[in-house]
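Protein of interest.
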Amino acid sequence: MKNLCLVIAAVLFVSANAQESPDLEKAIELIQLTGATSSFDLAIDQIGASVPTHKKEAYTKEARGTLGEIYKEMGALYLEEFTPAEIDALISFYYTDLGKKLASKQNLMMQKDMAIGQTWGFKVSQIAQKYSQN
């Protein structure tokens, strides 16, 4: 029984390490090309705004040290949704001028989209209130 547990643990370990494959590396490359990294950098800066200046460098280093883990998790998610061939095609796109432009505008567009969505949500909530009243 003990040996069976060891074998299962070894298989799980090998499986977990196998996920750090060329496909995962390409998925992470895609994430980086999309401009998502700048979102994380911005979040680190915003979250750490209250960190005193004399501790800011250590905070930033430690916070950035967490990025590898989240990139792996996101990469695994991309691999669930896209085939390796699709990821290759997306990577190729993001190396084009249009892809680079999209990546550079992604954060700004997302912020503007959120503002539009909030305005729309407010309008819809007003309609719901109108119909909720007797």
